[in-house]
Design a protein that fits this description.
By secondary structure, the protein is an alpha/beta fold. About 35% of the residues lie in helices and about 25% in strands. It folds into 2 domains: about 120 residues, NAD(P)-binding Rossmann-like Domain (Rossmann fold); about 190 residues, Dihydrodipicolinate Reductase, domain 2, CATH 3.30.360. Strands 8-9-10-7-11-12-13-14 form an 8-stranded mixed beta sheet, with helices on one face. It has a 6-stranded parallel beta sheet with strand order 3-2-1-4-5-6, sandwiched between helices. It is globular, with a radius of gyration of 19 Å. It binds NADP nicotinamide-adenine-dinucleotide phosphate.
């Protein structure tokens, strides 16, 4: 699909760089970048060939040559960043987690609806080719009745207590940064859970170091999910059905391959279509389709709001609290 919108990048941190690189490589037009620091915006613009660098987010969202804003601030700032852009009449693609709580997510969704713009969560995994194919296979009944999702997201990330991942004021912890991937995946395949159990071990700074979750979904289906920010695992995921299973290779939430097995674990199908980049442009193209009037292919905004509600409940169970923003 041809890209026709002009993208503006709000914030110049780690993931903004990855996203901008993927957009550039996909030939998607970025017209401006905005940073709290003019120098950072200028360096980012030079690196990615972006014509305009703004020294504030306010200037970025006011830029008439920008149609859609990609929000890449830490998650407690997603609400203010997204509302700033929406009130300036821009569509928004907001990094995951969409916000730090369900009320904040609903506020963005409502404001976007009132302004007549598209707001979408940048859960890029949903739009990767292997995930699109996996959903097709499940819809065709390729593994029968889907009963169980087992998925984790574990990484060895900085343990510096001042890093945003360790800092409650910046929305730190494994759950909202990493755990949201298996949570979103389980809800994609099995729906919003009817029962939630969770246990966590906390860091000295008061965020979750590792969290294990069990969800029960409609019909007694189950998901078993795990995340941790200081131990790296295989990051494979498996979906079990009554006539077979699909195992997604590592790293399951990035562009990757998978194998479908029959009920005796004989391989019957392999999906292996490499993606040259990290594949973050697929979500940008999804947003552009929504702007043109297409129904969401996955993760409509109401599901994003529901996912934030599930994460609120997990946080309540594990005692993970964030200061009011
Ligand atoms: N999709 C993915 O694969 C993925 C991966 C990693 C992170 N993320 C998400 O992306 C968001 C940003 O994560 P990141 O790893 O890119 O963080 P980061 O490297 O710390 O960058 C965050 C940027 O936000 C801006 N910012 C605004 N207010 C800030 C504040 N009070 N403190 C620190 N930075 C502030 C800064 O940009 P300026 O100085 O230019 O204004 C900063 O560079 C998070 O919500 C995270 O969950 C997504």
């Amino acid at each position: 699909m041809e890209s026709t919108l002009r993208w503006g990048i709000l914030a110049t941190g780690h993931i903004a760089r990855t996203f901008a690189g993927d957009l550039r490589d996909a030939g998607i037009t970025m017209t401006a970048v905005g940073s709290r620091a003019p120098g950072a915006a200028e360096a980012f613009a030079a690196e990615f060939g972006i014509p305009t660098a703004h020294g504030s987010y306010e200037q970025l969202v006011a830029d008439p040559d920008v149609d859609v804003i990609y929000v890449a601030t830490p998650h407690p700032m997603h609400l203010s960043s997204a509302l700033l852009a929406i009130d300036a009449g821009k569509h928004v693609l907001v990094e995951k987690p969409f916000t730090i709580s369900q009320p904040q997510a609903r506020a963005i969704a409502d404001r976007a609806a009132a302004q007549g713009v598209v707001a979408m969560e940048a859960m890029w995994t949903r739009y990767l080719p292997h995930m699109v194919r996996l959903r097709e296979l499940l819809a065709e009944g390729a593994i029968g009745d889907v009963r169980t999702v087992i998925a984790d997201h574990t990484q060895s990330l900085p343990t510096d207590p001042t890093h945003r991942l360790q800092n409650p004021a910046l929305g730190g912890g494994a759950l909202l940064d990493l755990g949201i991937y298996p949570v979103s995946f389980a809800i994609d395949l099995l729906g919003v859970p009817t029962e939630i159990q969770a246990h966590a071990t906390m860091t000295a700074t008061g965020v979750d170091r590792q969290t294990a979750m069990v969800f029960v979904h409609e019909g007694g289906r189950q998901s078993v999910l795990h995340c941790a920010l200081d131990t790296a695992g295989s990051n494979r995921a498996v979906v079990l059905g009554t006539t077979g299973a699909i195992e997604i290779d590592r790293v399951w939430y990035t562009p990757t391959s998978f194998t479908r097995y029959d009920r005796d674990w004989n391989p019957v199908e392999r999906f292996d279509e490499p993606v040259a980049t990290r594949g973050m442009h697929f979500q940008a193209l999804e947003l552009e389709r929504r702007v043109r009037g297409d129904e969401p292919s996955s993760l409509p905004i109401d599901e994003t709001v529901a996912i934030m509600g599930v994460l609120d409940e997990v946080r309540r169970l594990i005692g993970l609290e964030y200061p009011e923003q």
